[in-house]
Amino acid sequence: MATKIKISNTTSDTTVIDIEGVIGVSEEEQFEVPTHKVATYRKFRKMIDRIAALRTPEIIVNIRSTGGDLEDALLIYDTLSGLNSRIVTRCYGHVASAATVIAQAASDGCRELSANALYLIHRSTATCESNATGLEEQAALLRETDEKIATIYAARSGRDIALFSDLMAVNDGKGRWLSPAETLELGLADRIIDPTQETNEFAPKSPTIKERIGRLIDRISGKKDAPENSEQTFSSDTDNDEQLLSQAEAIRSEQAQNQALPTTTLSKEDPSPLGRCRSENQEAYRLDAENFRN
Questions:
Q1: Distance between CA atoms of 204 and 110, rounded to whole angstroms?
Q2: Are 216 and 176 in a shared domain?
Q3: Which residues are CB-neighbours of 186 under 8 A, at least 6 positions away?
Q4: Are residues 155 and 250 in the same domain?
Q5: Range of the domain at 255
Q6: Which of 40, 88, 134, 217 could form an S-S bond across to 110 if both were Cys, CB 3.0 to 4.6 Å?
């Protein structure tokens, strides 16, 4: 599966990037069956350019990937690191190899790891068809690559490079899967999150009545920084206090209806539709209606 990078603007202040699948696929590595072809490098690079153009103060990067091409992963890492935004990386599922490098692009204290995730770091691998000289050159490049990866881990964790070089060399260079606690202890993550309990502090929140009226006033007064797409649609040509109060009252009425509690119905009550006397349930409805009017 090729890299799937999805960019979405959750709010005007936050952008969410989802990275899934194999990191980076070149045009030479297409599948033989046309319907199975994956994204070309041109498409991948276009997506990188989109990331580089982001300007929101906060960028959340959800990562679900077992790795892939390190060169492409480093390209994503450098692109994210170069943004003037607060970068939060959140790792889920099996996060391995090149994907762990992207995870290190987060701002200080913003590398998050699911409590259900597994984390794998290992030595780099490559395929090569060449003579002895070519194989020796490839081996030298792999050693330099391993050193580069270990350097990134060490820089973000504050630990010694040798520690990560040794961990990557475990199991004949294949490394081993680390638990969230081990990953945190090694300094490769800053916080463990529980997806079943964690509330997303960056998720868009419904504006309060005060905020919505404030937005209305901003729109009417013609402020440039007023949000274009708020939940309530406001008329752009309103220029008097009477219309302003009318729209503000409509917002307050909507807020009151959203906060109204349902009337409790007695379990044994079955009032006759022909009866003239109000039941307790009907009286409750009447009181609710009066409260709305007041």
A1: 19
A2: no
A3: 157, 159, 163, 164, 167, 178
A4: no
A5: 206-259
A6: 88
